[in-house]
Amino acid sequence: MTSPRLSDRLTTHQPLVMGLFRMVLGLLFTTEGAATVFGVLGRKASPAGDWPFWYAGVIELTCGSLVLLGVATRSAAFISSGIMAFAYFTEHQEDGLFPLQNGGLAPALFCWGFLLLVFSGPGALSVAGLLGRENPPRPAAHRTTEVSR
């Protein structure tokens, strides 16, 4: 349990931390797409038009870049979350129930991370926010209670 003062301080930094989370998640997803489409970072490129891998790579590259920049974040995150759920259930689920059994840890984490961005928005430091196209981030509402002595 955190003290009210610590909780207040952490809450004031929530938009910045969500913005950093968005940027890191977007960068990681973009590199996944670049590796699949262009064959960089030690991975062989998927042939153009190869279903579903090449198309997934294009979506990862595009949506990852949008999320990284903070442009159309919720829409790009929704698509990204969906494609990772699709990847998990079509490529990994048949090898076991849990991600550690079936090698699906990365798709599971990406799916839930992007789903968080769908509901939380881009946070601070987004291009859309800098251009005034996104509502300014608001810390989550919380109640503080006084301790009676």
Major beta sheet summary: none
Query: What is the percentage of strand-forming residues?
Result: under 5%
Report the C-alpha radius of gyration, rounded: 18 Å
Distance between the termini: 19 Å
Give the low-confidence spans: 143-149
Q: What would the principal axes of the Cα set say about the shape? A: globular
Estimated helix fraction: 55-70%
The structural class is mainly alpha
Task: Please sum up the structure shown.
The protein is mainly α and 149 residues long. It is built from 7 helices and no strands.
Structural write-up:
With 149 residues, the chain is mostly helical. Helix content is 64%, strand content 0%. It is built from 7 helices and no strands. The longest helix has 25 residues, at 14-38. The protein is globular.
Key words describing this protein structure:
149 residues; mainly alpha; 7 helices; 64% helix
Topology summary:
Blueprint: H1 4-12, H2 14-38, H3 53-69, H4 73-92, H5 99-102, H6 105-120, H7 127-130
